[in-house]
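Technical annex, item 7. During the second reporting period the consortium partners agreed on a shared format for inverse folding records so that results from different sites could be compared directly. Each record opens with the tokenized structure and is followed by the designed sequence. A conforming record, contributed by the partner at site C, is shown below for reference.
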């Protein structure tokens, strides 16, 4: 493949961008004079983002939930069809199986109480004893 020279997808262009951003990256903060060119800080309900991709996100877990609760609820939602609600225990388990949910999720869902209707994944998480986010007012 031929080198494109100084086009927007070329190594030369990448080097130019690195040179322009070197000071900002070393300072770990913005160095531009014009405020409108600076990145806006995260909102109070959003995770604080680090400049380094290796950094950790903070504040991304809703009140009332742990990081594990968020992950498990996300896994449940990923393997449940939205059209099943309202659903009972059997419908939830059938949907998880048909969507190839991991065994750990199936084993956890086996603990759902029978004879109860679930309106959404939040109801399922609550029935499994997971922390659930509190409603904002």
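Designed sequence (site C submission):
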């Amino acid at each position: 493949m031929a080198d494109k020279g100084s086009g927007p997808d070329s190594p030369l262009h990448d080097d130019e961008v690195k040179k322009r951003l070197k000071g900002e990256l070393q300072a770990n903060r913005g160095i531009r004079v014009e405020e409108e060119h600076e990145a806006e800080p995260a909102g109070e309900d959003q995770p604080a983002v680090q400049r380094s991709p290796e950094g950790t996100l903070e504040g991304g877990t809703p009140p009332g939930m742990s990081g594990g609760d968020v992950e498990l609820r996300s896994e449940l939602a990923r393997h449940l069809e939205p059209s099943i609600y309202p659903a009972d225990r059997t419908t939830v388990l059938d949907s998880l199986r048909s969507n190839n949910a991991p065994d750990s999720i199936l084993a956890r869902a086996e603990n759902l109480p029978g004879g109860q209707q679930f309106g959404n994944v939040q109801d399922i998480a609550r029935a499994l004893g997971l922390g659930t986010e509190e409603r904002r007012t």
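The chain has a mean pLDDT of 76. The chain is about 40% helix and 0% strand. All partners now use this format for quarterly exchanges.
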